[in-house]
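Open question from group meeting: does this chain pack into something compact, or does most of it stay loose? Before anyone orders reagents, we agreed to write out a predicted structure and look at it together. Recording both the input and the output here so the notebook holds the full record.
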Amino acid sequence: MSASELIGKLEAALPIPTRVTPELQSTIRRGEASFVESATCNIKSLFDMGEEGGIVCELDLRMPAKEVALVSITHLRFDARLPLYRDITAYQKRRLKQIRRQRS
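Structure tokens returned:
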């Protein structure tokens, strides 16, 4: 499944519950963004950043109106009971392999 096909399916299911990875959570805490600290949140919208950036998600982190959290879908974790779980994890695995190849 292509990124654009997955985005279409995900957009139809918005908002989507997700969890940020511990690494991402600590990065957000160190930043200047102020939000309700929770590992769980919802995806509000999605963007296709092409081969360079992959699928990027806007998260609802209950931040002030001027602040927006945009995160690669590879930094998110999903409940295995989510209907699109297999599609998302397959994309994440493919994307991570792509990134590793680009770095070497």
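Observations to bring back to the group:
The chain has one domain: 3-103.
The mean pLDDT is 87.
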